[in-house]
Amino acid sequence: MEKIPILRMGRFLLVTIQIDMHDRLALQLQDDLTDRIVKDRAHGVLIDISSLEVVDSFIGRMISNIAAMASVLDARTVVVGMQPAVAITLVELGLSLDGVRTALNVDKGMALLREEVEAAGRV
Amino acid sequence: MTVVDRSVQPIQSPEDVVRVRQVARERAVAQGFSLVDQTKLVTAASELARNTLEYGGGGEVSIEVLNDGMRKGVRLTFADKGPGIADLDLALKDGYTTGGGLGLGLSGARRLSNEFSIESKPGEGTRVAITRWR
User: Fold this and answer.
1) With A44 labelled, which of A7, A73, A95, A101 sits at a CA distance of 20 to 30 A?
2) B107 at the A interface (CB within 8 A)?
3) Within 13 Å, how many C-alpha atoms sit on residue A60's CB side?
4) Number of structural domains in chain B
5) pTM higher than 0.90, yes or no?
6) Is A87 within 8 Å of chain B by CB?
7) Burial code of B25-64, b = ≥16 C-beta within 10 A, e = fewer?
8) Chain A contact present for B31, CB below 8 A
9) Is the separation of the CB atoms in A47 and A82 below 8 Å?
């Protein structure tokens, strides 16, 4: 069965979405990530969406859900690499990704995650 | 206005929704749409294809390539024989949903399109057409 791989980097989990996901796959990723946050005692999740050419309301909701679930499990989430055309479309669609931290690229996202985790006193 | 090409895609599974996105993208690229215009059309197509599947119980989309003098466009017409929509004004409101979604599908697709029309009869089905011009 196809799956989006979740990589562990120290205290963080890294997900790079490189395919056009159908809805079941997106839900699967949501479940897998929540499991892994607990299993790996992760402090943060970095989601790289630079290869995603479309973020519709379903994928947008999945991203918000992941951030909310991670937060309840005491982990921070940062989404990186959103393409400009995707950002323009998301806003026009009416989606604001409330509660989701974003950064321009993986480097900046990792720096932001570290800051957030340190600020939360989880060093 | 002339319809240069017309094809029909089934919408019966989540994988079909992905295919609708891909075909809409191909047509938009062939018509010379900018990346932003492509993305808007494909995102609107994704919302409406999902509605056809989730609320209409499946259906199909007709994808038309349009030429109108200097203008080039793509028209997508989604049709299902599902339960229909009793109150269209309410269904087009941001945030209104009868399912588990965000209620942005119809209203968002309308904002992302240049032309939008919807017809629905309770018990007979729903037909939504969107056009985006280059």
Assistant:
1) A95
2) yes
3) 25
4) 1
5) yes
6) no
7) bebbeebebeebbbbbbbbbbbbbbbbbbbbbeebbbbbb
8) no
9) no
pLDDT per residue over B45-82, tens digit each?
Answer: 999 999 999 999 999 999 999 999 999 999 999 999 99
A-chain residue closest to B18, CA distance: A22
- Domain that includes residue B90, residue range: 2-133
Q: Does A62 touch chain B (CB under 8 A)?
A: no
The residue type of A109 is G
- Size of chain A, expressed as the number of residues it contains: 123
Sequence-distant (≥ 6) Cβ neighbours of residue B25 within 8 angstroms: A53, B38, B41, B42
* CB contact at 8 A, B20 and B61: yes
pLDDT of B100 higher than 80: no
Q: Which fold has domain A6-119?
A: Transcription Regulator spoIIAA (3.30.750)
